[in-house]
Write a structure and sequence with these properties.
The structure is a single chain. With 408 residues, the protein is an alpha+beta fold. It folds into 3 domains: 278 residues, no CATH class; 45 residues; 54 residues, no CATH class. Helix content is 37%, strand content 20%. The strands form 6 sheets. A 3-stranded antiparallel sheet has the order 4-3-13. A hairpin with a 5-residue loop joins strand 7 and strand 8.
Length: 408
């Protein structure tokens, strides 16, 4: 199979006057700031990249477990499944696979997974396909009416004969994980929804680069106090630009053998509230992505280091990360044999400090919720003889009430 490619419409399906031409050809959105918002331009914004890498990197660090549910007592046990190598043998690691799927959801609101089967017809993995290479559509019945089933038109690379290729899969061959959706067909893309805010940030970065690249924070008009010819005016302008613009000339002193009057035409960075606007952009990205601004390295945000880190992690888990893991878990569960389910393990992420954990384990052992060996196992310590007996305040839980009272 040829590599997946972003779908390029033919000339018969698109007009050069179409305002969505950039989006259809390159996956970009034109913003009111006059710049195009694409994956690469958006991720060039440091705060946006930090938010995405924090969400996707954190999710990638969570192990994905296949658990078998015992209906008799509703307990769960680890089960062996293809989730240990979710893209199939010899492909992505579990960390890489989760990170790719999370980035697709984060940027485009959709993740598409192509099913991989072995020679016996058993599912052995799900291979991620870039969202811009896939067009979902409803399957129509014989009357031309949309059904509740989907099919996916996937654009492939060029064939050995130089022709663009595409293939259509149904839901038995491809799984779609959707973000928030309004039509049930595709998820909403943050690149599309936030294109004006992201475009403003991109334009701001471009303006800053241009300002520092020119070596001056102001522009203006130079008026000679004596008559000059057009050629002499051009020479004066070229001399000033050569001596004052460019980073290599920053701080230089220009000497011009003319009487000149300079009138500033642009605002300084302070007058234009340049720094304040860039700080506001960090807060805006924090709102769009659900990541606290202090985690985006915003110096103006309230720090929560210390005891607040645990609370902050729980808030990030509850209000941001579960929106991703819940969608992935439920889609993967549909592909596992019953009664297995897919589940992300948040244990390490939500783990308290060692002091708090030890105190909590002592209380659980004393209340009979855990045995001593259960607690030692959580702390990665070897078991001890007799440590498997569950006790309540030091009394074995199987003891009679009279024996327990006597021991107390």
């Amino acid at each position: 199979m040829w590599p997946f490619r972003r779908r390029k419409p033919t000339a018969s399906t698109i007009s050069i006057s179409d305002p969505l031409l950039i989006e259809k050809l390159f996956g970009g959105r034109h913003s009111l700031a006059g710049v195009t918002v694409t994956e690469n331009t958006a991720l060039g914004i440091s705060a946006f990249f930090r938010a995405g890498s924090l969400i996707c990197g954190t999710l990638a660090g969570l192990p994905i477990r296949a658990l078998r549910i015992n209906k008799a007592d509703d307990t769960r046990q680890r089960a062996t499944s293809w989730l240990e190598e979710p893209a199939g043998p010899g492909s992505y690691t579990q960390f890489e696979w989760t990170e790719v799927v999370s980035w697709h959801l984060f940027l485009h609101g959709n993740a598409y997974l192509l099913h991989r089967y072995n020679g016996a017809g058993s599912l052995v993995g799900l291979y991620p396909v870039h969202p811009l290479a896939v067009t979902p559509q409803w399957i129509k019945d014989k009357n031309g009416t949309d059904t509740s089933q989907k099919e996916f038109l996937v654009s492939l690379g060029k064939s050995p004969f130089g022709k663009a290729q595409s293939v259509t899969y149904d839901e038995t061959r491809m799984t779609q994980i959707m973000g928030p959706t309004l039509d049930g067909l595709r998820g909403l893309s943050v690149l599309g929804l936030a294109r004006n805010g992201l475009g403003t940030s991109i334009a701001s970065d471009n303006a800053a680069a241009k300002m520092f690249g020119n070596g001056l924070s102001v522009s203006g008009m130079v008026t000679p106090e004596e008559d000059v010819t057009p050629d002499e005016a051009k020479t004066i302008k070229d001399d000033l630009n050569a001596k004052l613009t460019g980073p290599e000339n920053a701080g230089e002193i220009a000497v011009i053998n003319r009487k000149l009057k300079f009138q500033q035409l642009s605002l300084s960075a302070e007058d234009a509230q340049f720094l304040q606007s860039r700080q506001f952009q960090v807060q805006e990205i924090a709102r769009w992505t659900g990541v606290p601004s202090n985690l985006l390295m915003d110096p103006g945000a309230v720090s929560t280091w210390g005891t607040g880190v645990e609370i902050q992690n729980r808030g990030l888990h509850r209000y941001t990360l579960t929106a991703y893991t819940g969608r992935i878990e439920q889609r993967l569960t549909r592909l596992l044999p019953k009664p297995q389910i897919a589940e992300f393990d948040y244990t390490a992420f939500l783990r308290p400090s060692p002091e708090q954990e030890i105190e909590l384990l002592i209380k659980q052992v004393d209340a009979g919720l855990l045995s001593i060996n259960d607690a030692r196992r959580i702390r990665n310590m070897p078991p001890v003889d007799g440590g498997d007996v569950v006790r309540v305040r030091g009394v074995p839980i199987t003891a009679s009430p009279k024996e327990g009272a006597a021991a107390a």
